[in-house]
Specification:
8-stranded antiparallel β-sheet; 5-stranded mixed β-sheet; 28% helix; alpha+beta; globular
């Protein structure tokens, strides 16, 4: 089709198109607006306008980053989750015993004195059956229908640091800003000399940070159940 033929087709289409009636005064208003002289802005006004647009764009990008965190951590990633470091390994254990019962006979006030901070008890679990404490760390355990549930809490920069050697993806749990270790994994301590001391094999564990403290909740195979308990560990 030539340019002239295309123009003829468009004119024919325009004559046959059904166009709603134009509101009274609309055409006059448009023509008057076109006839107005262009509005001249000062250099400062142009700069302010562009800065506002830039700040609006940055705000959108920041909000997007906050509401869309990574859902999973690939096995190739090293993660520091407070006082816990997650290291990827090629293979790992296929099973794990239930977590150990806290060995101590501390009361909560005694544990606070020994650890140097007031420990948090998840409201969903109630009073722990056993409490153990050392400088900078408190461990609690409960005997539940699911077996032993163990919660450890320690300062986020605790030394020695726990190392979890995982071999599958870690699932990000947004509601507590933590990570779910879904499979058995080796739990290792990195002592003050940099040597790794194997502690035991741990089962599925939820790890998160709250008020500068790292929490490890172990003994629950279900992530939803573990998360429901974690959200009640607040002051």
């Amino acid at each position: 089709m030539t340019d002239e033929q295309l123009a003829d087709e468009l004119r024919a289409l325009g004559r046959t198109a059904a166009v709603p009636p134009v509101a009274d005064g609309l055409a006059t208003a448009v023509l008057e607006r076109i006839a107005e002289p262009p509005v001249r802005r000062t250099f400062a006004e142009v700069v302010r306008s562009r800065w506002r647009a830039l700040l609006a764009l940055l705000a959108v990008l920041l909000v997007g980053a906050l509401i869309a965190p990574p859902v999973r951590a690939a096995v190739a990633e090293w993660l520091n989750i407070g006082g816990v470091q997650a290291q990827p390994v090629g293979t790992g254990p296929t099973s794990a015993p239930e977590p150990p019962v806290a060995a101590g006979e501390f009361t909560l006030p005694q544990a606070a004195d020994r650890a140097g901070f007031v420990p948090i008890v998840p409201k969903a679990l109630g009073t722990p059956a056993k409490i153990d404490a050392s400088k900078g760390m408190v461990a609690m355990s409960w005997q539940t229908a699911d077996g032993v549930v163990r919660l450890e809490q320690f300062r986020a920069q605790l030394s020695p640091m726990y190392i979890k050697k995982y071999y599958k993806e870690l699932e990000y749990v947004q509601v507590v800003n933590g990570y779910w270790f879904s499979t058995p994994h080796e739990l290792v301590l990195d002592d003050e000399t940099g040597n790794e001391v194997r502690v035991r094999v741990a089962g599925p564990t939820l790890v998160w940070v709250y008020e500068g403290m790292t929490f490890r909740l172990e003994g629950l195979a279900d992530k939803t159940r573990a998360t429901a308990i974690a959200v009640t560990a607040v002051r």
